[in-house]
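Both lines are given unchanged directly below:

***
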Amino acid sequence: MTTPILELKQLTRTFGGIRAVDAVDLQLFEGEIVGLIGPNGAGKTTLVNLISGFLPVTSGTVIFEGADITFEKPQRIARKGIARTFQIVQPFAEMTVLENVTAASIFAAGYGLKDARDQARRRLEFTGLAPLMDRPAGELSLASRKRLELAKSLAMNPRILMLDEVNAGLNSSEIEDALAMIRRIADTGISIIVIEHLMRVVSSLAKRLVVLHRGAVLAQGPTAQVFKDKTVIEAYLGSKYANLQSEAPDL
């Protein structure tokens, strides 16, 4: 059986008496795209923060490429090959697009300045931002800022990329462009976890879904199967709708 590139074992984070992430088990295999979904407040972003070291783990284990990285600092985790985007995009507004990506490459990948700039230029070409590389990041549109966030994460040379609602606030055309780019990233061999509220997005990207509800894994499995799960429908839409769905004939 293939060994997972990332494995979470009973991963838990508590805030006071609240279990924001509750004993989560998850496996991610090389080259796959997994959708991480759930209602607002389900613990999705908190889980990404635990994996990437931005929040300390209360209990449980994070294993990356066979090594325990549970209590590593964010910079060390990034340099090992785990990158993430942030739900709220906040580039260094006064710095140019190129400088933003160069800074990410130096911080996370440990490049010297010249190599970091070369790496940044390649990532800006890949994300279509090369024509804007000398523009201050604060002047970019939302869609371009989202691309900049992707370019920064790719400049870290990740083995795993965690995308936290990269399509939020985009129009239909911009979403289609973003989906094409995510597929191109996956084609390079990078494993991807996608946090997303738009079901048409995750259904078009991910063959496998993990559903969080109140911090715990409610369901996981093939995308089509999870979308038909009564407990998942109930968590999103309520028990009345779930019962109606279960009583309806298959079309």
